Amino acid sequence: TPIEIPVEAGSDGLGSQLPLLDGMDVDDAIQRWKNRENFVSGLRLFLLDYSTADMQLKRYMDEMDLDSAYRIAHKLRGLAGNLSLTEVTDAITVIDSALRTEQIDKAQAALLPFSQALGRVLSSIQQLTVIKEQKEAPKKEVDEEHLAKVFADLLTAFDQCKPSIVEPYLAELESYFPKEVLYPIVNRLKKFDFDGAKQETARFV
Questions:
Q1: CB within 8 A of 85, min separation 6: which ones?
Q2: pLDDT by residue (tens digit) across 44-58?
Q3: How crowded is residue 182: how many other Cβ atoms within 10 Å of its Cβ?
Q4: pLDDT at 200
Q5: What angle do CA 97, 99, 100 make, to 5 degrees?
Q6: How far apart are CA 137 and CA 189, in angstroms?
Q7: CA distance 28 to 145
Q8: Which of 15-19, 21-25, 71-75, 132-136 shows the highest mean pLDDT?
Q9: Distance between CA atoms of residues 21 and 151, nearest Å
Q10: Strands annotated E in 1-59
Q11: Burial class (CB in 10 A: 0-12, 13-18, 19+), 197
Q12: Where are the alpha helices (DSSP H) in 63-143?
């Protein structure tokens, strides 16, 4: 179930507190960013830009394109550190260092712990639902049993490898979740990567 953070008029957009989120040091992040809304915007951009970073790194390493892999790892290390994504930072630092010194075996061995850390933090960000002031149309009241069925049907629909079959279920989910939360799934579908979209959907289940 998404974590809902009530917003009070005149606040910075996130009420008085953020929930505990797996894989990140929220208190440290708030001290660094000073503004909770900016911090959550940073998390959303991270979700949009790096949800498939582990697979991108693996592909570049498999192709021995170490320069491209290093650029991703180095940029991700800085961003994860700024967002206080502690587990991701620790894991990507190992990869960044190994790629810088061209220790490809060490970098490849570090991919699994990085992927696991990334998965945990992406799940946390996906749970973070900000309820904006009345300007935004309210989402449907959460019916957990119905949502579970929609996700189950969506996972089955991916096996048909046809966007027309998948889209009605995504449309239904958009009435419950902000579009940016579902972006990793939609992004995979745009590339006709049904297996990847299925993996992204499984993070919700």
A1: 23, 24, 46, 121
A2: 888 888 888 999 999
A3: 18
A4: 85
A5: 65
A6: 26
A7: 36
A8: 71-75
A9: 23
A10: 3-5
A11: buried
A12: 66-82, 86-100, 104-109, 111-127
For residue 91, give the 3-state DSSP assignment.
helix
**In the chain, count of helices (H) and strands (E)?**
11, 2
How many CA atoms, within 13 angstroms, populate the side-chain half-sphere of residue 38? 8
Global pTM value: 0.57
Q: Which two tokens stand for residue 90?
A: 């620790």
3-class DSSP state of 5: strand
Per-residue pLDDT tens over the stretch 60-88: 999 999 999 999 999 999 999 999 999 99
Tokens 């189950």 sit on residue: 152
The residue with tokens 């745009």 is 190
SS3 138: coil
DSSP three-state, residue 134? coil
Average pLDDT along the chain:
80
| 81 class by beta-carbon count within 10 Å (0-12 exposed, 13-18 middle, 19+ buried) | middle
C-beta of residue 146 within 8 angstroms of C-beta of residue 22 = no
User: Going along 79-196, which residue ranges are E strands?
Assistant: 128-130
Quick one: tokens of 120? 């945990």
